[in-house]
Amino acid sequence: MNVEEHISLVSGNFTDKLPQFDCNCYILKDILQNWSDEDALLILSKVESVAKRNKSRLVIIENMMHTGHHAEEKLKSFLDLTMMSFNPSHSHLRTVDELFFLLQSTGFTDPQLYFTCTTYNIIETYPKTNQ
């Protein structure tokens, strides 16, 4: 099986109309942390509209802040400060609860959080009409 037959990498602007694909999964990696809440809501709304039509899921792979004092949380706090120093008005790590709120505000439901062995976590969710 050739991977290229099953994956489409798309360039463009998230605030424009998203292209339509017949796919079962949209993946956003390191995207939402670079945008303000208003722009993140716009991006998620656009993804929700195409995911709903295709009955697709959304997978978000990002560094996410958690409450706790573990070493990886301290590293994430450092990453958050570093990001804010480059772009104080937009870039920041969100908490899991903040990401869940953005998802639910744009029509996604039942987000599932998966932990990894890295500083990244994964959220999997579906538009409400896909259940």
Q: What's the short story on this structure?
A:
With 131 residues, this protein is of the alpha+beta class.
Task: Furnish the topology, listing elements before pairings.
Layout: E1 25-29, H1 37-54, E2 57-63, H2 71-86, H3 96-105, E3 108-115, E4 120-127
Parallel strand pairs: 1-2
Antiparallel strand pairs: 2-4, 3-4
Domain O-methyltransferase C-terminal: 3-108
GO molecular function: acetylserotonin O-methyltransferase activity
InterPro entries: COMT-like, COMT_C, SAM-dependent_MTases_sf
The 3D shape can be described as: globular
Q: What is the string of helix and strand elements?
A: EHEHHEE
Query: Into which percentage range does the β-strand content fall?
Result: 15-25%
Q: Ranges with pLDDT <50 over ≥5 residues?
A: none
Number of helices: 3
Taking the alpha carbons of the first and last residues, their distance comes to: 29 Å
* Average pLDDT number: 79
Cα gyration radius (Å) = 15 Å
Could you tell me the number of beta strands? 4
Helix/strand structural class: alpha+beta
Question: What's the main sheet like?
Answer: 4 strands, mixed
Keywords summarizing the entry:
4 strands, alpha+beta, 21% strand, 4-stranded mixed β-sheet, 131 residues
Mind explaining what this structure looks like?
The protein is of the alpha+beta class and 131 residues long. 34% of the residues lie in helices and 21% in strands. Strand 3 and strand 4 (120-127) form a beta hairpin. It starts with 24 loop residues before the first strand and ends with a strand. The mean pLDDT is 79.
